[in-house]
Amino acid sequence: MVVIPVGASRRQRARAATFEEIKNTALDLMREQGTTDVRFTDIARVMGMTPPALYRYYADRDELLTDLITDGYRHLGDAIAEALEAVDPKDIGGRWVAAASAYREWARSEPQQFALVLGMPVPGYVAPDEGPTTEAAKGAMSQLAALFVDAATSRKLRKPLVCDVSPGVADCAHDKHPELDGVVPTESFQAMLQAWASLHGIVSLEAYGHLDWFEPKARDALFLSHIEMVAKAAGLPTSSRS
Amino acid sequence: MVVIPVGASRRQRARAATFEEIKNTALDLMREQGTTDVRFTDIARVMGMTPPALYRYYADRDELLTDLITDGYRHLGDAIAEALEAVDPKDIGGRWVAAASAYREWARSEPQQFALVLGMPVPGYVAPDEGPTTEAAKGAMSQLAALFVDAATSRKLRKPLVCDVSPGVADCAHDKHPELDGVVPTESFQAMLQAWASLHGIVSLEAYGHLDWFEPKARDALFLSHIEMVAKAAGLPTSSRS
DNA sequence: CAGAAAAGTTATGGCGCTTAACAAACACTA
DNA sequence: TAGTGTTTGTTAAGCGCCATAACTTTTCTG
Lengths: 242, 242
Hints:
By secondary structure, chain A is mainly alpha-helical. Chain A contains nine helices and no strands. In chain A, helix 4 (92-109) packs across helix 9 (216-234) and helix 6 (132-153) packs across helix 8.
């Protein structure tokens, strides 16, 4: 990731701008070609440069991909956060719908970046510090976790559809998300993971075109009823507008 | 896809065997390198041939990929069918667990092939005849559909957690799966799709390593409780062993 | 056995990634 | 203002892989 220097010199600002231009060009090409496979040559050509010039910014193609991945999961997190801000904090059900819809919209609008972040890991990609990949999961999840905490503290969190929890899951809940301890019951932590998985499933299928045999309006309806089902199964209150 | 000739000449059998060897070598390399990106050069080297020889069998790399994709979704379907055969047809809940577990095991054992079939579509891949990609979805789904038909005819299918169905979804149910008409209610058809999506979600996350922060045993438990939740939400009877 | 078909080989071109060597632009200092 | 070092870009070149062409060897068939 590239840190944008605020009080930086002219050169540093130019350099930062070039980093951004490279990444944006790469994303444009990915969108245009429907692939996560970007050619350095093409990026350089679009930018009006020669390919070797890019090596002043990235050591190799994998380093650019890594940067795009870390950017990607931050954008996903931001999209969700932004959607959440637009909803009354009291309206837990509405917040769930907003977050899930943001997740979906981001995946639909940026399927390649979505695939980079949450699809099959790219081979050359080395995960620094426990891995942004894992961070992506935890980042998206932490907002979900916050939702469950809110629901629990405001006593709107019902028991999930399945309450059997194995010790392994309980241990993991304690280890990885200690902020939930004493607030969100273990069975709700499990339900939260399953809500995320269920959401991710329908979003993945749609983003990769496996639901194209549906009319767009039917897909919308299917998605909305899906996340309503997920909310019910997880014990979240359903949207206040219904 | 390569049709295996039964009463074929020596040469035809040799050719078919070479096709199989190419595909198996490609899959081995994919497993070994953790990529769907296979080099013709490497395949040839492992097979003790020169790269151009492979062009007697596949016009280009994309054609091999297409073959692997169509093979892949057939293998997935077979794995599910095989798992289903081992369970008492009366035990709807057990059959759901078996099918879902087979889906999971296949994805875990062949993550690259799973990514090819149900991940982001590969760019050069042209879908013949409405597309194997869509066929993959429908193929896996038709077995799910059969499960719901069985459940409905034996009166074990309860109402799903969400019963609101939009006209678009109902139309699609009628158009694409007429075999369900009059047997499986539309809300159950919708629930079936959502069950598949939910299953796919947790399987994708696990196959791509996004649940690696769980202990293996915890992942198993999470998966089992997930599909139990999904079954409940869809109105399927839960496994008879519980 | 002869000729055709199939399968494989070497030779070759093209393209993309990447490094090396060089040139121009820029910034800082005397 | 001139000089010097850094940054950013260029051209040249090597390597590897995809793919085609032309040629050779093997295998089938009449």
